[in-house]
Design a protein that fits this description.
CATH class: Alpha Beta
Helix content: 25-40%
Strand order of the largest sheet: 4-3-2-1-5-8
Number of helices: 8
Radius of gyration: 21 Å
Mean pLDDT: 76
Shape: globular
Largest sheet: 6 strands, antiparallel
Order of helices and strands: HHEHEEEEHHHHEEHE
CATH topology: endopeptidase fold (from Nostoc punctiforme)
Low-confidence stretches: 211-217
CATH architecture: Alpha-Beta Complex
Number of strands: 8
C-alpha cells in the first residue's frame, strides 16, 4: 500500500511539475532582441569549450535576469564537431545546455540565431583541457530535470520583491538539487572545475613567517554560479564576432535621415 501511494504521489508531482515548467518556458510577451547575433559570424568566432551566454525570452528568464542583475539568463557550451551529424541530414548539434523541463540536451547553434548572445572564452586552456571540458558535458547529455522538485519551480511564479544584493545568489540556489537545476550555468561550472579552472574563486590570504603571505584559491560551489559570472570573470575573455561585411565604416550605407 505504501509503495503504491508513493508511486501515485511521484506521478502527481511529476504531472504538476510538467505543467509548471510549461508555463515558465513560455516566451515573454513583447520580447525583442536589441542586437541579435549574426549567425555566420558567430559560427566562425566560436571554439570548442567556449561558453555562449544568451539573453533568454522565457518567463523564467526574467526572474534570473533580475536576481543576477544581468542581461544574461542562459548559458550553453559550444562543442564544435564533437557530436555526430544527424542521419537525416539536419544541422549538427554544437551546443550542450541544461533546459528547464528537459535536462541536459544537445542543440544546433541556429537555435539562438535571433537572440542576443555573448561568447566567453577561458584564457590559457590547453587543447587537452578544452577537450576535457567538452567531454564532461557530452558525458552528461541525458541528465533529466527532476520536475518533482516543485520548490525549484514555484519560486519563479511569484512577483520578485526587492531583494538585497547579498541574498540574490542564494535565492537562485535555494531549493535546487544536483544536477536537476533550472540554472544552466551550474553544470558548465562543474565542467571547468573538473580541470581546476577558476571562474570566480573565493580567495583567502594566508600569513606566513615574517612578511611572507600567499593567496589561496577556493572552489566556489557550482550551485552558486550564474550566467553572469562567466561575463564578469577575469579568467574569461569576451570574444566579439566581426560583422560579415567587415568593420570598415566607410563602406556602410546609411539611410537618409529625412
Amino acid at each position: 500500500m505504501e509503495t503504491r501511494l508513493g508511486i501515485a504521489c511521484d506521478t502527481a508531482l511529476d504531472r504538476i511539475g510538467r505543467f509548471l515548467a510549461g508555463k515558465l518556458t513560455r516566451t515573454s510577451s513583447g520580447y525583442r532582441p536589441f542586437t541579435p547575433s549574426d549567425h555566420e559570424s558567430l559560427s566562425q568566432a566560436l571554439l570548442p569549450g567556449d561558453v555562449l551566454l544568451i539573453e533568454g525570452s522565457q518567463r523564467v528568464s526574467n526572474a534570473i535576469k533580475y536576481l543576477t542583475q544581468s542581461t544574461w539568463s542562459h548559458a550553453a557550451l559550444f562543442v564544435g564537431d564533437a557530436l555526430p551529424a544527424p542521419a537525416d541530414g539536419s544541422e549538427r548539434p554544437r551546443l550542450i545546455e541544461v533546459n528547464l523541463g528537459e535536462g541536459c540536451v544537445a542543440r544546433p547553434l541556429s537555435k539562438y540565431a535571433s537572440y542576443n548572445t555573448r561568447i566567453c572564452r577561458a584564457a590559457g586552456l590547453t587543447a587537452e583541457e578544452r577537450a576535457a571540458v567538452v567531454r564532461f558535458m557530452i558525458d552528461r547529455i541525458g541528465l533529466h530535470y527532476d520536475l518533482r522538485n516543485i520548490i525549484d519551480l514555484l519560486r519563479y511564479f511569484f512577483p520578485t520583491p526587492p531583494v538585497p544584493v547579498r541574498w540574490r545568489r542564494r535565492m537562485i540556489a535555494f531549493g535546487s538539487g544536483d544536477p536537476t537545476r533550472a540554472i544552466c550555468s551550474s553544470l558548465i561550472a562543474q565542467a571547468f572545475q573538473s580541470v581546476r579552472y577558476p571562474i570566480l574563486p573565493e580567495i583567502s590570504v594566508q600569513e606566513g613567517a615574517g612578511f611572507a603571505r600567499r593567496e589561496l584559491f577556493h572552489i566556489r560551489h557550482h550551485s552558486l554560479f550564474t550566467p553572469r559570472d562567466f561575463d564578469v570573470s577575469p579568467w574569461f575573455d569576451i570574444v566579439k564576432p566581426h560583422p560579415a561585411q567587415g568593420r570598415d565604416h566607410r563602406t556602410l550605407e546609411w539611410a537618409d535621415p529625412g
